[in-house]
Specification:
Blueprint (H helix, E strand, L loop, with lengths): L2 E8 L3 E9 L2 E8 L9 E5 L25 H15 L9 E6 L10 H12 L5 E7 L6 H14 L6 E5 L5 H7 L7 H11 L7 E6 L8 H7 L5 E6 L5 H5 L16 H8 L4 E3 L4 H6 L7 H6 L13 E2 L2
Parallel strand pairs: 4-5, 5-6, 6-7, 7-8, 8-9, 9-10
Antiparallel strand pairs: 1-2, 1-11, 2-3, 3-4
Length: 316
């Protein structure tokens, strides 16, 4: 039986929950919509795959501590909690029901995620179900990703799965600084993508949360990533304590989706589909966006001004 420790948010945008899945083990999970789309069009859940995260990316508040891995049931408990609040019969009539394994933790380091992916189509009546794995592709995860490919082919073909790899830059030294663990090379990621992609699938996403001074060179990407199988997603650097501590400034203006950026133009001219993904600024204030972590905010002595401004409601 899970226990809710705290929550923050706005039902019209996003809600973040801190829940205890087993004695002493806290995770965060999120539900969100993307105005103006109603929940029936698109509903997004973000769940945690670790208690903390051992990676320690420079812009992510969820790193810095690591207390192990949730079981299959503890991951499902997060999804069940969010689903049962809205659809207690577990019949989910959303055109796109997206479950992102991306709130806290690196999913490829927890093999229980694979068991969850196999369980989901049996657990919910959800024709719009689309799981999403976001990874930094740590070294030594070949067995996980080979099994993931089998699961995708069996359960989630023809556009029902989203696979994202966070690169953040094409400069290998800066990439190592931003993502301070051993990880797959661009060549390894490209080779896996060639195996993963089948006609009818969504293109694999190369994710760049762009900070000032982080180069994205189309020529480097073209060496390893076929524009017919990979797309580029560029996001602002969300307001986090870690970004502030590391003096990181967003290259993308989070308040404007109409500005023109040379990097985006160069990528498009190279043949890539580019998505400039700027979410609702309200989500930054709630603390539900990528890289944000409510528990870090609760422990902070000096709050940041452009994020985590919603009141956190702690349960007795």
């Amino acid at each position: 039986m899970i226990k809710i420790h705290a929550s923050a948010g706005n039902e019209d945008f996003a809600m973040v929950y801190i829940i205890e899945t087993s004695p002493g083990n806290l995770v965060e999970c999120v539900e969100s919509v993307q105005p103006p789309l109603p929940r029936e069009k698109k509903w997004v859940l973000l769940v945690s795959t670790m208690f903390g995260c051992p990676i320690g990316c420079l812009m992510c508040d969820a790193g810095g501590h690591y207390n192990g891995k949730p079981s299959k049931q503890e991951i499902l408990d997060q999804i069940d909690f969010l689903v049962d609040k809205r659809f207690p019969t577990r019949n989910i009539p959303c055109e796109q029901f997206k479950i992102q394994f991306a709130r806290m933790g690196e999913p490829s380091l927890n093999k229980e995620v694979l068991d969850v992916l196999e369980e989901l189509p049996l657990r919910y009546q959800a024709p719009g179900l689309m799981p999403s794995i976001s990874t930094v592709a740590p070294a030594g995860t070949e067995r996980f990703f080979n099994k993931l490919l089998e699961i995708k082919q069996e359960h989630y073909s023809n556009g029902h799965f989203q696979f994202q790899v966070s690169l953040h830059t094409t400069d290998p030294d800066l990439r190592d600084r931003f993502i301070p663990v051993k990880k797959w090379s661009f060549a390894q990621i490209g080779e896996y993508g060639e195996r993963f992609y089948s006609p009818g699938d969504r293109k694999l996403t190369l994710n760049f949360a762009l900070a000032d001074g982080m180069p994205v060179a189309p020529a480097v990407l073209l060496t390893y990533f076929d524009p017919g199988k990979f797309l580029i997603k560029i996001t602002p650097l969300n307001p986090t304590y870690r970004a502030r501590e590391n003096d990181l400034v967003s290259y993308i203006n989070p308040l404007s989706a109409v500005e023109k950026y040379e990097i985006i133009q160069a990528l498009q001219e190279s043949g890539y589909q580019v998505i400039l993904s700027i979410g609702e600024t309200e989500e930054n204030l709630i603390g539900s966006n990528c890289g944000q972590y409510l528990r870090r905010h609760l422990l902070a002595e000096a709050p940041i001004e452009d994020g985590y401004t919603y009141q956190v409601n702690e349960s007795p």
